[in-house]
Amino acid sequence: MIKIKNVSALALAAALALPLAATPAAAAAPATPPVTTGAIFNDPTDPARQNAIFSHVSRLIDGALPGSTIKTSQYVLGSDWLADRLTAAHLRGVNVEVLLDSASPKHWAGKPAYDKLAEGLARKSDKSGTSWVRVCPDNQACLALDPNPEDTYYSNNHNKFWLFSATTGSSTGTVPVNDVVVQTSANQTPWDRVTAWNDALTVTGNKELYAAYATYFGDLEAARADRTRQVADYPVAYQAGAAKVYFFPRSGSDVILDILNTVDDPVNGQPACSGNSPGFGTADGRTVIRVAMHQITRADVARKLWELDDAGCFVDIVYRELDNTGSAIRDQLGKPTKFGGIALHKLDDDAAGRTATHSKYLLVEGGYQGQPDRKIVWTGSHPYTRMGLTSNDEALLKYDDPAVHDAYRENFRAQRAAADQQSAQ
């Protein structure tokens, strides 16, 4: 059972050097707007937009105020550029706290960047903050207790979030914004920028959401330091206005399944997946479910997506991988339904020159919890895999806002078009 608390409070390049044309300009653009709530997407097919998320995070770091705190939990941070920016923030008085999976210090993932960051945050000056970078135990998550430690599917800290207690949004910004949360699907690596599609949702000024993430960050660090604090089940969700965040691992209910189970709740006595205003969802008002997902291996989730399409929802999926072994998930999602079947679009980089989806989001446009005309996004680091549910440190952020949803819908359409173009080649 989920406890809901209302709070008030791949082979990767070893080191990253952002192209000179993009780096300084992105970090010091004089006309940077104030930090606002909204979505940012990279586009690996467009050199001008490959660095969108990376540059956004860089600017937020550069704008962090002395005395403020940056907290980040990452699977892989393999970027010399970010190591330099975080060090610079530390030396001007920002408290920088970095918690990494054990992959980051390894050569395949970006060891030089890790070494650079560790050295940088250990430096002291008369202004330096209280800063550190720490690593989860080898082949283990920080908080999640591996349910099958004898197998070769090692648990990990798969998180990809950033917290800024106060930032102006750039080195030239003048208006500070407090309690900034950036939940992204992107690791900080070249592959994530130039080959993979990723998203980042920034939420500003939400004290409750910031506090929820900060509490989770604290639990991650406490369990890293004291292995008796690892847990097999972390069934906690925090509601914070338009936002709601779910943390992992879960050994009980499946959060994604629980969400999907409410999409076909009856709306005004109408058939399942119906009852929305015309044009809201489909032209005839049927609910549309869009999924951009790096990997799907959970049979229950695949079955429910099929059931929803069979019930009348339009289910549209962009994916990189289905199944770990065999074809059970592919077979389930590919079965015909009364309404024709799920639309499946494969977006992978198995061939040279291709891109892949690394996103992990779910969009609902239509019925949700018995109410029509809803537009909601669920995004984060959480893939629809068994490890993502039970074995990893993960976060899933829900945001209930039409403008945010519509931005994600446009990104989904772009990924779907790229997938269909690749399949036609």
Short description:
This protein is 28% helix and 25% strand.
Could you characterize the architecture of this molecule?
By secondary structure, this protein is an alpha/beta fold. It has 2 domains: 219 residues, 2-Layer Sandwich (Endonuclease, Chain A); 170 residues, Endonuclease, Chain A. It is built from 11 helices and 18 strands. The strands form 3 sheets. The chain has a 9-stranded mixed β-sheet with strand order 1-10-11-18-17-16-12-13-14, sandwiched between helices. Helix 8 runs parallel beside helix 9. The radius of gyration is 21 Å and the shape is globular. The relative contact order is 0.15.
**Name of the top-level CATH class of the largest domain:** Alpha Beta
- The CATH topology of the largest domain is given as Endonuclease, Chain A
Decide which structural class fits the backbone. Answer: alpha/beta
CATH architecture annotation of the largest domain: 2-Layer Sandwich
Instruction: Supply the number of helical segments.
Output: 11
Query: How is the biggest beta sheet arranged?
Result: 9 strands, mixed
Radius of gyration: 21 Å
Shape: globular
CATH superfamily of the largest domain: Endonuclease Chain A
Strand content: 25-35%
Characteristic key phrases:
about 425 residues, Endonuclease, Chain A, seven-stranded mixed β-sheet, 11 helices, disordered N terminus
